Amino acid sequence: MGTGIVSVLLQSIPFSSQALHYISIVFFVLNAALFSLAFVTSFLRYTLYPEIWKVMIQDPTNSLFLATIPMGFATLIEMWVFICVPYWGSWAISMAWALWIVDVIAAASVTLSLSFILISQRHITSLERITALQLLPIAATIVAAGAGAEVAHVLPNKTHAMSTLLVSFVLWGMGTPLAISVLVIYYQRLAVHKLPPREAIVSCFLPLGPLGFGGFGIIYIGKVARELFQDTDILDPIAGSMAYVLGVFISLLMWSFGLTWLVFAFATVLYSSPFPFNMGWWGFTFPLGVYAANTMELGKVLDLMFFKVFGTVLSGVVILLWALVASRTALGAWRGDLFYAPCLQNLSPSLKDSETEEERLRA
Asked: Is-annotated flag, keyword Membrane (predicted)?
């Protein structure tokens, strides 16, 4: 997700140049390689050791990260639309549409199943245990909605484009109100139980994710609706323009709400620093990146230099954060002391003993 949003930002900067375009392609290829490696590794892990899947899906924290799969995949679809479609034409458009359908199924499944698991199990029994990670499964459909609007924009078949756009709006409606509801609960948790522990302090940036991509997605949905509704008898010809105008104002509202959480996040980081490095530091990149994308999109639509410059500055911050976190991750992976799965503590004793014996034999 972090690498993918960097490639999207490099492609979206309003002061873009040919150099940024080629750098975004490099990040696109790197992201495709990282996603493939992570997906294959995870598939083999849960295939060879199915017991791990059971304890992971029942863990109230680790299970939430399943939502990162369709969100990371959505960034690949976006870059496919930006880079491959203009060069490769019709078959690339069909490929983007097919990949997006797969992403929709995965995102909707994750949002509905993990949200139900969260409310049906009894792991979280107090407000203090609520974290911003609860936003992850909800944000999956919001990200899929934004990617769907971009796919609908390039589909030549008007019927397919209209269907894709309507599904995107449904996905946006599934996730955005629910995400705002969770933000209300999360704010109450912060007000009553104060800041999260230092190890999880980066999670304070996660509210920017659904707000940023939700604002970006609703603008794109309105933009495509304005084009599609002009040549159809659905509703009224003015419906497309209404959807576009409402999308801009809703996006501006979500951007403003996100600005509040952005200030909270930076203040929290400054107040709590220093804090230890862990994989949670990747939570800096994607939420701030999608907020920057929404900012730049508002700048293009409203033709306001403030949003263009502010979005570009935020994009630069995201790229620098990516470089910092990626280097620290590579160093921790080389040392072998970075990756840790707390849910494995819930494995059955027999499986733990077999893993311990295997590690002893390797030594």
From this structure: yes
* Cβ–Cβ under 8 Å, residues 286 and 216: no
Compute the distance between CA of residue 222 and CA of residue 243 in angstroms, rounded to an integer: 5
CATH of 2-323, one of 1.50.10.150, 2.60.40.10, 2.40.10.10, 1.10.287.3610: 1.50.10.150
Handedness of CA 298, 302, 303, 309 (dihedral sign): negative
Summarize pLDDT for 304-350 with one digit per residue, the tens: 999 999 999 999 999 999 999 999 999 888 887 777 776 677 676 55
Contact 95, 76 (CB under 8 A): no
- Residue-range domain boundaries for the chain: 2-323
DSSP code per residue over 120-189: HSSS--SGGG--GGGHHHHHHHHHHHHHHHHHHHH-S-HHHHHHHHHHHHHHHHHHHHHHHHHHHHHHHH
